[in-house]
């Protein structure tokens, strides 16, 4: 039985400008023990999908199950199997860290949870803050408590919605060490993030959402293999010819272009020279998840076999 199952999930919102379809028939399963990444640009529908999974929003149609429990018909059982770390920090400022975690345990009917609470505090680098009031904690510390709070009932499925947005390197490392350890011990992890480096390092399988639809669903290594295998990187102050500009990832002076082989590299550099531009600091590197993501989002990867797409190519290009 899958740990999480999304079956043909659609969601529309009524807005002042009419109906907005945030999710359009999303289907995929996450198996127990997977570290699964859900990626997509702003507005793709990631938070909507997670809100439906957590029972905070209702799907317009389709079904979502957690360890076989329907999130609507069998809400309490589904919720018990889930530990959701939300994006936003909301706490009662008057309780201490330990009290906050005891209260949360109480919501799940768990008493005498201090041994596990201590393990959580230790694992998340919060041991010396157990007695501190929530209002005395820094933003990063509060975020750690949010993670601990989601895990008080030892849920088999951990859902992290952009847990590292705006947090420092130390917290990221603590968080990933702890979550990876829980994953190695059998927990299923569903992660949404805009940090593609983190997703590449952590996730075994990835789904990419675009405008409410799954446009790629494959193991991380298959996604990387399916991408243009190399990237040509150089710096320039000059304008690129329009055909190259359309494919390029440009950050300030740095231009990055997919290049399969040496012939591609020569062809691109010749085109740059012909356009009267000068390329400096030329490098060739292996494609990473960010390159794959950009290829998928611009439709270029729709034809690559390794990107197991549930949609026909025509739909992807539309
Ligand atoms: N309560 C709501 N009412 C109306 N429209 C909404 C509501 N919540 C989300 N949307 C719209 O649904 C679409 C999907 O939004 P969602 O927040 O799920 O995207 P996301 O992938 O999580 O984006 P981000 O990366 O910015 O968090 C967007 O167009 C958004 O404006």
Automatic annotation (TrEMBL):
The keyword Transport applies. Residues 4-236 form the ABC transporter domain. SMART domains: AAA. Coiled coil: none annotated. The keyword Transferase does not apply. CDD domains: ABC_DR_subfamily_A. Pfam families: ABC_tran. PROSITE patterns: ABC_TRANSPORTER_1, ABC_TRANSPORTER_2. One of its GO terms (molecular function) is ATP binding. It comes from the Bacteria. Keywords: ATP-binding, Cell membrane, Membrane, Nucleotide-binding, Transport. InterPro entries: AAA+_ATPase, ABC_transporter-like_ATP-bd, ABC_transporter-like_CS, ABC_transporter_ATP-binding, P-loop_NTPase. SUPFAM superfamilies: P-loop containing nucleoside triphosphate hydrolases. This is ABC transporter ATP-binding subunit.
């Amino acid at each position: 039985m899958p740990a999480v199952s999304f079956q043909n999930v659609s969601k529309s919102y009524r807005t002042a400008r009419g109906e907005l379809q945030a999710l359009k028939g999303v289907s995929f399963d996450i198996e127990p023990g997977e570290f699964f990444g859900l990626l997509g640009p702003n507005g793709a529908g990631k938070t909507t999908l997670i809100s439906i999974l957590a029972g905070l929003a209702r799907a317009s149609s389709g079904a979502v199950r957690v360890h076989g429990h329907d999130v609507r018909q069998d809400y309490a059982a589904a919720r018990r199997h889930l530990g959701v770390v939300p994006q936003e920090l909301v706490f009662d400022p008057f309780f201490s860290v330990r009290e906050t975690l005891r209260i949360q345990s109480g919501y799940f009917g768990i008493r005498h949870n201090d041994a596990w609470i201590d393990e959580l505090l230790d694992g998340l680098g919060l041991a010396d803050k157990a007695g501190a009031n929530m209002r005395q904690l820094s933003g990063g510390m509060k975020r750690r408590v949010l993670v601990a709070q989601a895990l008080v009932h030892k849920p088999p499925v951990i859902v992290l919605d952009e847990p590292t947005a705006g947090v420092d390197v130390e917290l990221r490392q603590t968080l990933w060490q702890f979550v990876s350890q829980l994953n190695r011990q059998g927990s299923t992890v569903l992660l949404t993030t805009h940090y593609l480096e983190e997703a590449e390092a952590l996730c075994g399988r990835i789904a990419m959402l675009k405008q409410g639809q799954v446009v790629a669903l494959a193991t991380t290594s298959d996604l990387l293999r399916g991408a243009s295998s190399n990237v040509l990187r150089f710096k320039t102050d000059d304008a690129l010819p329009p055909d190259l500009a359309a494919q390029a990832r440009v950050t300030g002076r740095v231009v990055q272009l997919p290049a399969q082989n040496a012939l591609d590299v020569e062809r691109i550099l010749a085109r740059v020279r012909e356009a009267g531009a000068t390329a400096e600091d030329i490098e060739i590197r292996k494609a990473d998840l960010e390159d794959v993501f950009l290829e998928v989002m611009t439709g270029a990867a729709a034809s690559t076999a390794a990107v197991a797409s549930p949609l026909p190519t025509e739909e992807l290009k539309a």
